[in-house]
Amino acid sequence: MVLQALGVICLVAFTLRFLFLLPFRARRKRDVVIREIYGPGRSFSILVPADWQNKSEGEFFFVGGDGDGPVLAGAAWHFERLVEMRPFADVRFDGVGAIGVYKQRGREFLLQNGGIGREYVGMSVADRKRRSYVVACFVAGTYGVEITLTTTRKDYRSNRARYLEMFASLRILGVNKQVSDQTAETAPASATLH
Length: 194
Prior knowledge:
By secondary structure, this protein is of the alpha+beta class. Helices cover 28% and strands 34% of the residues.
């Protein structure tokens, strides 16, 4: 009787999963413990999985999982005047195009916190397989932040919703002037670390 009930439960669960009514993977994703990490000079904060290691140095933000796992990287800039999102994001996106390694996939997307992002796929010289590369840009007042995610295509497809939530958790704090003081003309096109 117990085995029959267990068999019925497994069959129902498999059927629901097949019909995409019960996302088993999403349940595991919600169980991830997160923590808040700060960017250079506490200029921004973002929520990341608690087991990711902070490898930031100086003005660059660099956090990631173990081994071939995902890497979140970026930088913040303080400008002399108010920053407009579209020109700031376009310079960053143009920088990705200039590298010639990644090609944009899909359309640009908007995040709940006002950020703009684009998804790319490509393979750098150091990689053995194609990777997903996501660039998200944020502005607030005289501050601009660029965050990138580099991970395997499989990981990105499986965890896309979680990564978009991570990007949406970014808050520009602009607390102190340790971030790069640059004008829009001298800011690097891309501040990512590979």
